[in-house]
Amino acid sequence: MITNEQYVRLSLEFNLFFLRIAKEHAIFAAASLPPRDKTIQQQLLTVKQNYETLLQRAVSLSHNVISKEVLTSDEIVTELTLPAEESTEFLTGIPINKNITKEELNMVEAAKTRAETALTGEVSRLNNEALVLTNRTIAFLNNLYRNISECKAFSYTYPTMLHHVTEESKFAAMMLTKLQNKDAIDSVKEIIDLEIFWNHIMEEHSMFIRGYLDPAEKQLFEKANDFAKKLELLVSRTMELRQNPKLLPEITRESINQVTELRNFKKQGAEGILACEIKSIIPPLLADHVLREANHYLRLLNTTKTM
């Protein structure tokens, strides 16, 4: 069980990360649909707006509450997030609330002057609303995925990527439920499951980057392909921890090393895409998006390493 103070801080830290991720999922899905699916696109933009509203609330509640570790991890926003939003809004025509990003860039770490426990009720309502919205979004994405898989709809997004973001949403729903129950992830089994999930996410990121690069970008393609192969092996080794959990410290160290390399590759890619130096069909915000997810996972790995 976690204390009320931990509940408030951990909930807000998770919401700051996930609500932004979720609203961006809606942006990418909407931008990938053809003109015939304007109704679905508008529904996705409504999902985006709903997540933005919750994210704004989370930001407002988070001043002087968030830990230094999270604020300095670059998982909430990076120095590239704002220009990536500006570029993606220009390229897609999809409106993005950039004031939220500007406010987050100016957030400061937790201070003893603010009583976190006084925020418990507001944070509980935020978690509940995020959970309801996420479950509805999962159902919507599952339906869209089914229609695309059955050739009843078309998207420039890979079906596997749509499944990928749905799995991330399911994971977030599980995390929000655990937070509402004031249940910490602290057992070896839970940590192993966490690493299996995120290593698989990192593997798929490498595959998507590989697939969205222009064929002319041969060196970057090979680099992304190399990451995908290495991470596929790492996922297999991580899954073996269920039979041999004693190897967890070793696999965690290996995960930190591989994800750090991938994170650096993603950052270079995001910078190159923003500077229009890389040929791809990767929106600038998607490049920053996957960078933040790697940063988030690295912080989790470094936290579990000390447990």
Structural features, described:
This protein has helices at 4-31, 38-62, 68-71, 81-92, 98-105, 120-149, 159-180, 188-212, 218-239, 248-274, 284-305. It folds into two domains: 1-184, Protein of unknown function DUF2935 (Ferritin, Up-down Bundle), CATH 1.20.1260.120; 185-307, Up-down Bundle (Ferritin). It has 307 residues and is mostly helical. Helix 1 (4-31) packs parallel to helix 6 (120-149) and helix 8 packs parallel to helix 10 (248-274). The protein is globular. The protein has eleven helices and no strands.
Run of helices and strands: HHHHHHHHHHH
CATH superfamily of the largest domain, called what? Protein of unknown function DUF2935
User: Could you please say which CATH topology of the largest domain applies here?
Assistant: Ferritin
How much of the polypeptide forms β-strand, as a percent range? under 5%
Give the oligomeric state of the chains in this entry, treating copies of one chain as homo and distinct chains as hetero.
single chain
The total beta strand count reads 0
- The domain tally reads 2
Helix % is over 70%
Q: Any idea what the CATH architecture of the largest domain is?
A: Up-down Bundle
Write the layout of secondary structure elements.
Elements: H1 4-31, H2 38-62, H3 68-71, H4 81-92, H5 98-105, H6 120-149, H7 159-180, H8 188-212, H9 218-239, H10 248-274, H11 284-305
Helix pairs in contact: 1-2, 1-6, 1-7, 1-11, 2-6, 4-11, 6-7, 8-9, 8-10, 8-11, 9-10, 10-11
